[in-house]
Amino acid sequence: MGGSGCSRLRPKPAAQYVYVTAKQTFLRDRVAAVSNRTATVENGDRLEVLDHGRRFVKVQTAKGEQGWIDEKVVATQDVFDQFEKLKQDHKADPVVASAVVRDEVYMHAKPGRDTERFFRLAEGEKLKLLARATLAKPLPPGTRVAKAAPVPVPATATTTGSAGKGVKAVAPAVPDEPAAPVMEDWWLVRDSKGDTGWLFSRMMDVDAPDAITRYSEGQRIVGSYVLTTVNDPEAEQDDKNIPIYVTVLSPYKAGLTYDFDQVRVFTWNVKKHRYETGYRDRNIEGYLPVTVTTATDPYGKLPAATTPAPTFSYRVLSDDAGPVVPDPVTGAIVPGKTVVKTYRLESNLVRRVIQPGTTAPGEAHPEPVSEKKKGAAGKGGKGKKKR
Questions:
Q1: Reduced to 3 DSSP states, what percent helix, strand and coil does the chain have, rounded to the nearest 5?
Q2: H or E segment to which residue 210 belongs
Q3: Closest C-alpha among 79, 99, 124, 78 to residue 190
Q4: N or C: which end of the chain has fewer CB within 10 A?
Q5: Greatest CA separation found in the chain?
Q6: pLDDT digits (tens, 9 = 90+) for 153-167
Q7: The whole model's pTM is what?
Q8: How many angstroms separate the Cα of 234 from the Cα of each of 148, 243, 245?
Q9: Are 385 and 302 in contact (CB under 8 A)?
């Protein structure tokens, strides 16, 4: 009797749960070649664990349906908690751009192909982009690391020996260096349900209107933001309020240590009914986010400066900042010293907001700048060459 009383007082073990990772699958009444379906479960469903078998788990749905499920199509509580932590840690992060999923794909708990995955996104799902990371592409097992191509030495180089005979010069031996790794970009994203995770960048497209993507000139639009609208009653579009965009662009290349190298403003020509480039800033090492607001010009002397106007700002790497190196583990890209550049759209003119008489801070450039261009940039406030 004493033993029976102790068993009644013993606390019930805490419930254990797993979560469905497959798009859709079934529960079965037995683990056998021939079985009956007892329930249908979908991605994200929480299932209570009742028993464990070899490679299968007996579970119960929220509706009380029971059955066996392959452990390969479920995630543990630990994996679910990782995604919940991502959601809570980044729920207040600013959205730097929007995108659309290109095909059905999973979100990962960390950047990288071999990391835990859970939520499955459908083709066409709208995403909010929060941050970018870049990592080396993992090599298949057994792959040998390629060596960098040797520098060719001219075969005609000769020297004169002590006996006066011509002797071919021998180039000093240079140790083989491994070739640079292939890089992959990942984005921390938030879907329409608020779920957050990392997504391979090639599985999505930045959401930019077709009206301006045709002018991208072979570059990738990283983000597009509406500054204001202009009414054009004779425009071909159904909506006569035409958006004015500020866009940021980058080369089609993964592993860049900056988010964009060009800023371009598309204004609308009411007489010709088409987009035109109202401003362009090239050869910069820029970082998201781009902020858009309406503000006055505190340094302007003309009456228009006191009138609020569309204003945008972005950061570029300073010319005295150190090299930006992505974290080899997390892929995080954290620049050192940056310069904030602010501009106002006044009618169809884009003007920089900067205190008169001051010299604009120097900026880093991904490509070398000639002395002529450097001098012109200094006068216009575009900075100096970094290296």
A1: 10, 40, 45
A2: helix 210-213
A3: 99
A4: N
A5: 112
A6: 555 445 444 444 555
A7: 0.81
A8: 59, 15, 20
A9: no
